[in-house]
């Protein structure tokens, strides 16, 4: 009886092992991730008919003929998945290159030097979230030699939440700041001019609330009381391009006396947001959860009443209807012919096209 029971366990184990090995597959060949098309190599499993990335993943987009003629948009990434969740170390490279003016022969191979811009990002992932130190570095290359570091950011994370202090540098400025353990912006964020090493601006946060902004120019100090500082109802959001837009709009609404002041920290934060967004889009296009790190800030929250909700719905409905009508007009074959012979029709057709483009851009 014991022998029979042991044999059953062994058979069950062997069956399970064979089943798992049959589900563990490998792919090498053409692959597309978002706007990037290249060659990829990765391990995956089939689970209920779905492809589940599981194991090492590597992809590269590079086109030598394009590089030699008019330049090339380069992309590469490598890392690992566990049941479709990014884990371990990940390395990304985004480049815009042209062929350099030197060609070298070595080890029976020609090497083409490149010139352009390379953005590299490197860090660890834990259960699909950034963990530990993440570094973004953007460099200018001339004939395969680094001529300038144009951007660098260094952040520390714990399961996706930024921790402690951080630093961002570009060609003109350096930004130093810190977060609380829950990821809320806190304390003074200081911006320094690289040329003079002097502080040109600081933003004063308190547990995610932006209280004041100071801008220094010589002996002059420009101060703005940030709208997040009062006791209004607050909502926690990500420090992204929306937050920067809110701050810019608030400044316009204040009708500040010195409208020539353009807060410099906007620019370096916008760069930072865009570089992290590039990596986030890759993970999203691979079917993983968004990589976007939780840089947290607080903003005023104004919930809409029932009447305002209905007004928004009405506007949305009218916009949808106008898009349908606009599309019909612009694609109308008779109007396209008539505008060639009638100036009034040509003018109105152009006006509709301009309005459509303006709405689309918004």
Walk me through this protein's architecture.
This protein folds into 3 domains: 23-159; 171-303, no CATH class; 306-361. With 362 residues, it is an alpha+beta fold. It is globular and about 70 Å long. The protein has 7 helices and 16 strands. The protein has helices spanning 2-23, 64-69, 241-254, 265-285, 306-330, 333-338, 343-361; strands at 24-33, 36-47, 50-61, 72-82, 85-106, 109-126, 129-142, 145-158, 161-170, 173-179, 185-193, 199-206, 209-217, 220-225, 234-238, 296-300. Helix 5 crosses helix 7 (343-361). A 14-stranded antiparallel β-sheet has the order 1-2-3-4-5-6-7-8-9-10-11-12-13-14. Strands 15-16 form a two-stranded antiparallel sheet. Helices cover 31% and strands 48% of the residues. Residues 1-22 and 257-261 have low confidence and may be disordered. Strand 10 and strand 11 form a beta hairpin.
Summarize the structure.
With 362 residues, the chain is an alpha+beta fold. The protein is 31% helix and 48% strand.
Question: What is the overall shape?
Answer: globular
H-E string = HEEEHEEEEEEEEEEEEHHEHHH
* Strand percentage: over 45%
End-to-end CA span: 76 Å
Computed over alpha carbons, the radius of gyration is 27 Å
SS-derived structural category:
alpha+beta
Number of strands: 16
Low-confidence stretches: 1-22, 257-261
Largest sheet: number of strands, sense, barrel closure: 14 strands, antiparallel
Mean pLDDT: 81
Tally of helical runs: 7
Strand order of the largest sheet: 1-2-3-4-5-6-7-8-9-10-11-12-13-14
Number of individual domains: 3
Oligomer: single chain
